[in-house]
Q: What sequence folds into this?
């Protein structure tokens, strides 16, 4: 189920469209403070169906749309697409690739697409069930999570175990 | 459901000990314990970690770097039950010293045969262990807008 | 007490803007605002920080490194009111990139004329900015017991 | 009010007595994970009168006494002494140096000394009042504190301001 590419436009600091191609093995994402590295991680969480604004470092969902800078106007829509190889046949086998797309408009409307076909958020989260990825995945790790596991935030510890069981 | 949980718990526990020993040393010990074994579906789970001959009374006594490695061992223990197709680490290496960064990247290289790993980092030693790097930047003429750039490996790991 | 607080608050606010601009750039803006100005002794204090032409809606939107520099600016703003004889930083530089580490150590060197600074760090760039270093270690033959060692500057900043 | 030396014995991982001499300017403390750097910071907090076990990463105060290793027995007492120059005349001017000492016995007994003379904890915290140092000082900074200032732990933000006022 290898990732092949991630396309981000209008999400957080991505005022211009950015496309990242993933290969096998270990990919490093580097750059100075504040340039957008964690925003890429947020984009992946978001397209996989994350609904908790706190996990996206935002107060409300609308804040994830590019809100402009001194030199640029805000955008009206955020769109993220994640494409991976259909090696686990999550979709019927005639598809070699699966592309998951999520859009949010400033009006509050949301759109979800699977290989370009409109669907519901539920279809996307169902697709990833049992693969170990999705919101709250033990596969997306930041230092804040290390803290939560070690402190007595017992629910986070139990949640991890139950997700694997 | 109770049998299922106990079986998975035992598997995670064994994985935890195995990964912990490769991130620390072979003589180090750790354990996962159900504080209320009569009630596995409700019981809190206690983490016991004893690196390098120390006898910490709780994991809270451990150092910043030791805590990070312990939590990482647990996350990898769970990962080994059901390997996710990709794993993302966002600056998890920040509290680690050089020797521990090497242990961390070694175990990632090992697992990267199974899954893709995406590592966000500022650390040059971690960067040296990646297969490919993407640079993210913002240009002074267009501030606040993220752009992707080619990374000069020699400049980064200078 | 109310006058006293408002006067101190205003002084901290001005210091905050000055320090913030030296940790970020001269064109960056920030502010401290009493959300309930009628009630200064009770009012929550809001921090507004806008680095490099960005327009974050809240400070929570800032990156890890930007948050660290913003909080550090506030702590130094308070320090400037009543400089403590010594300041201790425990791995506060961990989320910072190289350029920001230099800004951080520059401001510390500036204030170190007034106060002693004790910096715990893993970062070689930070180490290069210290006047003297103490190494702490534990020996394999006597595990779990901290000992002080001489530090070979060349080995540390290799 | 320059620090001249710190002596630690029996506190946390300091099974042997360790003496650190401080000079002017910037002192770096370096070493591998888990070797005792943050324990030095905890020792300074403790000798200045810290009573909150949470700020010392311990569940109870007794846990700050060296509790032994595979090769060594636990110790029965923790002792930390901090010495600085009496340039601010916190003590009468015939003293050139001020040494603050704190001891904790496993029995639970505590001792506090100023230049070797027994005193109460209150005498030590009073000594430092208005100097900007002591427990909760804005001058002892770790990443956890950065988080607390920035999150809505409003009390920590107000506390800082009130301490300076
Ligand atoms: N909706 C938005 N519109 C425009 N910019 C945004 C938006 N949301 C966040 N940002 C900007 O994105 C930047 C944060 O990016 P990010 O967290 O990805 O940085 P980073 O590369 O991870 O940095 P660090 O190394 O410090 O962790 C902030 O400066 C913030 O102002
Ligand atoms: N009472 C005690 N007796 C013996 N050892 C102790 C005691 N309390 C803590 N320790 C040990 O001290 C070690 C932690 O030291 P410390 O937090 O100072 O490390 P550090 O140098 O700051 O490391 P890092 O770089 O990872 O932050 C732990 O391994 C812990 O087991
Ligand atoms: Mg980040
Ligand atoms: Mg530490």
A:
């Amino acid at each position: 189920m290898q990732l092949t590419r991630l396309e981000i436009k209008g999400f957080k600091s991505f005022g211009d469209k950015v496309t990242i191609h993933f290969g096998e093995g270990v990919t490093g994402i580097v750059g100075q403070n504040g340039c957008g590295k964690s925003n890429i991680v947020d984009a992946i969480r978001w397209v996989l169906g994350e609904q908790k604004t706190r996990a996206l470092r935002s107060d409300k969902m609308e804040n994830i749309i590019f809100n402009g800078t001194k030199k640029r106007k805000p955008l009206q829509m955020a769109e993220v697409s994640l494409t991976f190889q259909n090696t686990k046949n999550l979709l019927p086998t005639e598809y070699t690739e699966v592309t998951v797309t999520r859009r949010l408009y400033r009006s509050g409307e949301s759109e979800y697409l699977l290989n370009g076909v409109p669907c519901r958020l539920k279809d996307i989260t169902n697709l990833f069930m049992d693969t170990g990825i999705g919101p709250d995945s033990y596969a997306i790790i930041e230092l804040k999570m290390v803290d939560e596991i070690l402190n007595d935030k017992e629910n986070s510890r139990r949640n991890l175990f139950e997700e694997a069981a | 459901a109770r049998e299922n949980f106990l079986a998975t718990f035992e598997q995670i526990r064994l994985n935890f000990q195995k990964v912990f020993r490769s991130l620390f040393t072979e003589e180090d010990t750790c354990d996962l314990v159900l504080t209320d074994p009569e009630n596995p579906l409700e019981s809190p789970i206690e983490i016991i970690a004893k690196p390098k001959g120390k006898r910490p009374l709780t994991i809270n006594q451990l150092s910043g770097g030791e805590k990070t490695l312990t939590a990482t061992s647990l996350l990898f223990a769970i990962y080994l039950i059901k390997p996710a197709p990709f794993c993302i680490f966002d600056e998890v290496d920040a509290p680690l010293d050089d020797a521990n960064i090497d242990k961390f990247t070694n175990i990632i290289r090992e697992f990267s045969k199974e899954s893709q790993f995406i590592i966000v980092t500022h650390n040059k030693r971690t960067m040296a262990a990646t297969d490919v790097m993407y640079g993210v930047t913002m240009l002074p003429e267009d501030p606040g807008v993220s752009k992707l750039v080619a990374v000069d490996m020699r400049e980064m790991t200078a």
